[in-house]
Amino acid sequence: MSSPSGRSPTLIRLSVSEPVSLQDRRFKEKQMPVIRVDWLSGRSQEQKKEVASVFTRELARIAKCGPDDVQIVFMDVERKNWSVGGVFAEDPTLEK
């Protein structure tokens, strides 16, 4: 399944939550920026590292927090579990 740019669809959600950590009490009174990236499976670990580096740097700059405060969760979704407009990404009739 392609987007108008010809790339696989990527949905990025940004939320702010307070993590629960029993071992690191410094989180107790801080709101930690959490980025969740939902995208189709197949990205390399190197791609994820680059995304994590850029997102961490820029969110820390914009949110005026430390890079250590930024958390990122990558959710790799199989094509059979991704649907847009009722059509699944694994549909063989779709252009790749």
TrEMBL record:
All residue ranges annotated as the 4-oxalocrotonate tautomerase-like domain in the record: 33-88
Pfam family, one: Tautomerase
GO MF assignments: isomerase activity
SUPFAM superfamilies: Tautomerase/MIF
Entries under Gene3D superfamilies matching the protein: Macrophage Migration Inhibitory Factor (3.30.429.10)
UniProt record similarity statement: Belongs to the 4-oxalocrotonate tautomerase family.
Protein's UniProt name: DUF1904 family protein
Source organism: Agrobacterium tumefaciens
